[in-house]
Amino acid sequence: MGGSSSANRNNRPPNRVSGSAPPPLHMPPHLAGQYPNQPLNAPPAAPAPPSVQMPNSPSGGASQYGVQEGQILKMLATVDPLSVRYDPATSTLNFSIISSTASLTYEVHTGVRMCVKNGDVYYMPNKPKMEPPRISLEGSQTTKDVSVVVDASNLDEIERVYNPQYPKQLPCVVVLRYRIKKSNVSGSGASAEPSSVFTEHTEHTTVDLAENVKQRVISQVVTSGGSAYVVENLYGACEENCVVGAQPEVVVGSSASGQGDDDDGLCVICLTLPKDTAVIPCRHMCLCKNCAEELVRHTPKCPVCRGPVSTLLHMPTVPLSSQV
Length: 324
Description:
Distance between the termini: 70 Å
Strand content: 35-45%
Domain RING-type: 267-306
Number of helices: 2
Radius of gyration: 24 Å
Keywords: Metal-binding, Zinc, Zinc-finger
Protein name: RING-type domain-containing protein
Low-confidence stretches: 1-9, 13-20, 37-43, 45-63, 239-262, 318-324
GO molecular function, one term: ubiquitin protein ligase activity
Structural class: mainly beta
GO cellular component, one term: lysosome
């Protein structure tokens, strides 16, 4: 027994330290800094800023099919994803902004890496260049069509195409910014004084600049109240101009507060309780929370499209008047 055990120990392959392999031969130069592997004698890398978790990655200690609780946020300005068009011949980007705020700004970044820190989203260019100008739009407008000539002349061909293996590397981003005024009262009693505080909200729409793409808009991220959220559109929800989501994900373009027809507002399994839980990543909101939890214990597939379940997103019904 002892000799056999000793022989096994002697014949074990040497321990390999992860991170000793060199970067892939064909890796683009501007992405080399994102390659996680480092030489053995390299100094320890600086901690990376926290990134926005994707909807198919449940947060915290949630189980594989855990139900994430949601909240409802009201968005006053957004880029309509269906309106985004890009003409590679003229480097022209066209999109529509749907807004109910009196003032907002937009800017267009190209060839950047997204960073998220303390709930703020900012961008680091692949190559040194000037910050893009912020264009102001004044006056309350329902829809505003925008046409911008994108600075794509200095982008390599590989920088114009979104690569899912490097999700932080973005070809083009349209950033909307607007501020909301809130009234606060400082002090108490006779010494109480009213004051106003402005809170900035932003929306970040990532656009693929490739010539032939199936989906021009890659993703949308919003920041509100010191947190960053990934945006998804839901199928089967009602009402518009609201953001519905769960920490740290957010779903834009629909609300769980409207029910529409009585039959359409019910869970597709029990046909009794209102549907208030969406299946991610297919984004079908077709279940009540109770049936959703039972479904994943037996058959973790969406009852509408039979697609796999990554996580469940539960949105409570909240009146529109209570939204922020």
